[in-house]
Design goal:
about 300 residues, mainly alpha, elongated
């Protein structure tokens, strides 16, 4: 191949060989195709990156969509826990009236049931005292009515306790509601145990003590109305007193009291038990003792449960 040279180029290529002149005249290869190929090769990677980004975006959106129900559930739970905060005084009173009305309706229905067994209930209550008397014409009628209503209340106790629990539920958290839901049936059972303990153990002892105060010139003559009042003043306080372990265990489970605090205030509870016995029972020392001693024993039992079972 002979190089193509003009007169001006001879001076520029003077002293160079033919191969060097041919190399100098050969044009350099264009780099644009390589760059475009590199760009074209880079596009799939960009597309892959964009695809990954799209996948991440869709995954985030789906995760947000799946998280939204949980957030809504949490909001609903918070709304349930804080439902009581938004209630006004009028709404509280309305709720209280509704619970009281339902409790009264339950007592009336149960009283209608116990009315069919008034003779059996009267004989059962009269068993510790024997024969009773009525001092004025309407005393027997009102005594039967009192027995029917009282036994109807005892029969409706689960409904009454449930309505009281439902009234206080909005003031507690979800965890506290679960604890209270377990405690309500236990409170009914303990109330009935207190009634049974009072009627079968305390009442016979009290009647025997009072009848022993008589003599040949002073014979006992029990009025049916006064006797029933005496029985009722024994039953209700003992039924409520047997709720003490449940209350203490509930407070310990919620972290309000500990076994150390229960032990510290034991001496004060012993004194307060006699004060409560003097307030809730008939005005005699025997009645006060028969209520104060079980109260103290129940407090000690609650202390053992909190310390050794609950480990509080």
């Amino acid at each position: 191949m002979k190089p193509d040279m003009s007169g001006d180029d001879l001076e520029n290529y003077k002293g160079m060989t033919v191969e060097e002149i041919l190399a100098a005249q050969t044009p350099e290869p264009e780099a644009e195709p390589k760059e475009t190929e590199g760009v074209e090769d880079a596009h799939p990677e960009a597309e892959e990156v964009s695809g990954v980004k799209d996948n991440h975006t869709s995954d985030n959106e789906s995760s947000q969509d799946t998280d939204e129900p949980d957030a809504s559930e949490d909001d609903e739970a918070d709304g349930d826990d804080n439902a009581d905060e938004g209630m006004s005084i009028i709404e509280h009173l309305t709720e209280l009236r509704k619970r009281i009305i339902r409790s009264i309706i339950a007592i009336i229905i149960c009283s209608c049931i116990t009315y069919n067994f008034d003779e059996i209930i009267m004989q059962f209550l009269m068993a510790p005292a024997g024969k009773l008397y009525f001092m004025h014409p309407g005393e027997a009628f009102f005594s039967y009515a009192k027995v029917v209503l009282f036994s109807g209340f005892l029969l409706a106790t689960p409904v009454v306790f449930y309505q009281a629990w439902r009234f206080f539920v909005p003031a507690f958290t979800r965890r506290e509601r679960m604890v209270l839901g377990i405690m309500v049936p236990s409170s009914v059972v303990l109330f009935y145990i207190g009634l049974a303990f009072s009627f079968f153990m305390v009442v016979p002892l009290g009647i025997k003590f009072f009848m022993g105060m008589g003599s040949d010139d002073l014979a006992p003559l029990f009025s049916v109305e006064q006797y029933l009042d005496f029985i009722m003043t024994f039953l209700i306080p003992f039924g409520l007193a047997f709720e003490l372990p449940l209350i203490i265990i509930l407070l310990a489970q919620l972290g309000i009291v500990t076994s150390a605090q229960l032990k510290k205030y034991f001496r004060y509870v012993f004194l307060i038990s006699f004060v409560i016995g003097a307030i809730l029972t008939p005005p005699d020392i025997i009645s006060q003792i028969t209520l104060a001693i079980p109260l103290t024993a129940l407090y000690g039992f609650s202390y053992l449960v909190v310390r050794y079972l609950l480990r509080k």
